[in-house]
Amino acid sequence: MKVNEPKRVGPVNPYRQASDHKALNGTNKKEKQRDQVQISSEAKELLLETNQAVQSKERVAKVNQLKQSVESGTYHVDAGKIAEKLLPYFK
């Protein structure tokens, strides 16, 4: 003797089935909406060129200053700073 029909158990909670279906398909709008930024290749090249120009000017000035201080004998090496930089390599 059968107590339940086999097809009667499925539609017990149609709301849960609908939410499960949405979760599986990814129809949640909050998850789909994401901000995106696209930078053109021209803008990337321009940024790279300006960064290189600024860095090269700063580097040239710093190298010239170091050359002058070495030539004049006023260049001082701080042993404490060197030790701090080398310490992580010996741990």
Automatic annotation (TrEMBL):
<keyword id="KW-1005">Bacterial flagellum biogenesis</keyword>
<keyword id="KW-0282">Flagellum</keyword>
<keyword id="KW-0805">Transcription regulation</keyword>
<keyword id="KW-0804">Transcription</keyword>
<dbReference type="InterPro" id="IPR031316">
    <property type="entry name" value="FlgM_C"/>
</dbReference>
<dbReference type="InterPro" id="IPR007412">
    <property type="entry name" value="FlgM"/>
</dbReference>
<keyword id="KW-0678">Repressor</keyword>
<feature type="domain" description="Anti-sigma-28 factor FlgM C-terminal">
    <location>
        <begin position="35"/>
        <end position="87"/>
    </location>
</feature>
<dbReference type="Pfam" id="PF04316">
    <property type="entry name" value="FlgM"/>
</dbReference>
<keyword id="KW-0966">Cell projection</keyword>
<feature type="region of interest" description="Disordered">
    <location>
        <begin position="1"/>
        <end position="38"/>
    </location>
</feature>
<keyword id="KW-0969">Cilium</keyword>
<feature type="compositionally biased region" description="Basic and acidic residues">
    <location>
        <begin position="18"/>
        <end position="35"/>
    </location>
</feature>
<dbReference type="InterPro" id="IPR035890">
    <property type="entry name" value="Anti-sigma-28_factor_FlgM_sf"/>
</dbReference>
<comment type="similarity">
    <text>Belongs to the FlgM family.</text>
</comment>
<protein>
    <recommendedName>
        <fullName>Negative regulator of flagellin synthesis</fullName>
    </recommendedName>
</protein>
